[in-house]
Amino acid sequence: MMKKIGRTIFVWGMLLHFTTGRAQSTIELQKGDTLPALSLNLQKGDSMYKGNLKNFAGKILLLDFWAVHCLDCIASLPKLYALQNKFKDELKILVVTTNSQQEVQYLWKKFKDNEQAREWVNAGKQMTFVYNDTLIQQYFKPPSLPSHAWIDKEQRFIALAYASSTNSKNIKALLKDEAIRLDEMAIINIDPDNPLSWIQSTGENPAPVIPLSYSMFTPHIEFGMGGARFLREVKDSISKLAKEVKILNSPILELYRYAYKGAAGFRGFIPYDRILIESSRKEEFYFTGVQQEYPAWAKNHTYCFGLQLPPGCKENALEIMQTDLDRFFNLHTRIEKRSVKCFVFKKLADFKSTEMVGGARQRVKIMKEGKLYYVLQNVGLPLLYSTVSGVIYAMDKFKLVLNETDNEGIVNMQIAWNEDKKEISLPSLQTALRAQGLELVEEFREVSLLVISDRK
Question: How far apart are the C-alpha atoms of 168 and 363, rounded to whole Å?
Answer without folding.
Answer: 52
